[in-house]
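Figure S7 source data.
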Amino acid sequence: MPSKDCDIDFCTPELSANPRTLSVPRTEWYDSLAAAGLRNADVHGPARYWLQVEGSFTRALQQQCRHSFHVEIHYEGFSRPSLEEARHLGIPGRQHAWIREVRLCGDGAPWVLARTIIPLACLDGEGRRLRHLGNRPLGAYLFSNPLWQRGPIETGLCLPEFPGQPEIARRSVFRNQSRSLLVGEYLLPRLYR
Ligand SMILES: C=C(O[C@@H]1C=C(C(=O)O)C=C[C@H]1O)C(=O)O
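C-alpha cells for the predicted ISJ complex:
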C-alpha cells in the first residue's frame, strides 16, 4: 500500500530520489501473474492488487492518494524502442516511435514509473494529441475513446540494478483498429510496501 507518511514533494527535481532509482530497469515479461508467481512469489503479495487493476491505472492511483496525484515527465520524444518492445508491437526493429516515460506521483512521491511506446502509425489525425499530453495522464486520453481497448495484462519481473528501483511491473497493448501502443507500469516499492 502507498506510504501515508510522506509529505515531502519528491517529484520536484531538487528533492527527487537518486535518478538511477527512478529509471526503468530491464524486465522479464510473463503472460500471466501465475506464471510470474512461479518465479517470484512477491507478485502474490501486496503488489498483486496493482498488478491486476482493471480500467484506468491512473484512476486506481488517484483513489489511493490522500492529498494529490500528478504526472511528472521524465522523457518524451522520438527514439528507438528496444528490439523486444518493437517485436511485441509488430513494428520494424529499427523504426523510431514516440516514447513517453513519466513518474506517476501520489502525495508528492513517485509511486510508479511508466514507459509507453507509441508507434508512428498512432500519431496522425486525432492521435497527434499523444505527442502533446504533457502532464495530463495518458489514461485520460485512452479511456475517453472506447475505440481504444486494453489487451491482456502481462506481469513483469524487473532486474533492478540500484536500490529502490522497481522489482515488479505490468504492461499491456492498447489497440484501436490497426493502431497499437504499449504501456508499461513499473511499481516502485513505496507503492505496495
Ligand atoms: C494507460 C493509463 O495511463 C497511465 C498514465 C500514463 C502516462 O501519463 O504516461 C502511463 C501509464 C498509465 O499508468 C491508465 O491510466 O491506465
